[in-house]
Design brief:
single chain; 283 residues; 9 helices
Length: 283
């Protein structure tokens, strides 16, 4: 079962986005209701509410070649259970919850054609055991794939525009603010001063361990972690945003790449982007 992308809610206290438990519960309830009508029992769930069914990752094959695949462990486990007879069929909420890549759908169709076990959906009747049902499923998955591609293109264009205007993506509807800034990109002076003082201590030769102690004793906590650690603090100082440097696709604008060796912040393909948010630590 997959939860819809619009099933996000904002935490009233932190402003962060999280998955809606109501959405998960509602979809499970609808699936259980359909199972009751069909006279079958749900013996196993395959939740994928935090897994993409669209974005691909590059995988290196033993022969050195590359393929691009969507990584869906639960979906693959479901296919294995279907083939091995662990489950007698599959019920899912909607076709676009089952697959958004035609390759995933075809893998399931291959099994259904051979084993003839039923596959049912809450939102409509699609029988993958028939040629008509398979044709309809292929059309719907192609449309879902196109929808995901359109969304990805719009998001990518919006992120480029934000970078060109010097705005950080994290400050424009992101799920979590950065330490030192509000969600709107304004400097939080108390946190900023802590960063500045810490930078001066490091430049003066103090250890990272002493900086962890300093941050802990300041009474100001990190944004998401429960307590300060070496990695949490070091990540703050490695982030270009505290120097007012904007990023696009992980790279800094060309002017900020001068003198840097090739790294995740230096990419010759980077487009022209404006300076970033307000500076906390000037170099």
């Amino acid at each position: 079962m997959r939860i819809s992308e619009d099933e996000w809610v904002k935490d009233p206290k932190t402003g962060e986005l999280r998955l809606s438990e109501k959405g998960i519960t509602r979809q499970k309830g609808d699936i259980l209701a359909l199972a009751g009508k069909l006279g079958v029992q749900i013996v196993k769930w395959y939740p994928e509410n935090d897994t993409t069914a669209f974005k691909k990752k590059r995988i290196r094959l033993p022969n050195g070649r590359s393929v691009w695949r969507v990584i869906r462990p639960e979906f693959r486990q479901m296919l294995e259970d279907y083939e091995d007879g662990v489950i007698d069929g599959v019920i899912f909420y909607d076709i676009d919850r089952l697959a958004r890549q035609p390759r995933d759908l075809e893998d399931l169709i291959d099994l259904v054609e051979h084993y003839k076990r039923p596959v049912a959906t809450v939102t409509g009747e699609i029988d993958l055991r028939t040629s008509g049902g398979r044709a309809m499923a292929r059309v719907l998955v192609a449309m879902a794939n196109k929808s995901s591609e359109d969304t990805s293109r719009r998001v990518a264009r919006a992120r480029l525009q934000e970078a060109q205007q010097g705005r950080s993506r994290k400050f424009s509807g992101g799920r979590r603010r950065r330490f030192g800034y509000t969600s709107d990109g304004e400097v939080i002076e108390a946190e900023a001063e802590l960063i500045r003082t810490g930078a001066r201590r490091i430049l003066a030769g103090q250890s990272w361990a002493s900086l962890v102690k300093f941050f802990t004793e300041s009474g100001i906590g990190p944004v998401s972690a429960r307590e300060w650690s070496y990695n949490t603090i070091r990540q703050i100082y490695k982030t270009p945003s505290i120097a007012g440097i904007a990023l696009y696709d992980g790279a800094m604008r060309k002017e900020n790449q001068e003198g840097l060796r090739r790294s995740r912040f230096a990419d010759p393909r980077t487009p022209d982007i404006e300076p970033g948010v307000q500076v906390i630590v000037a170099g």
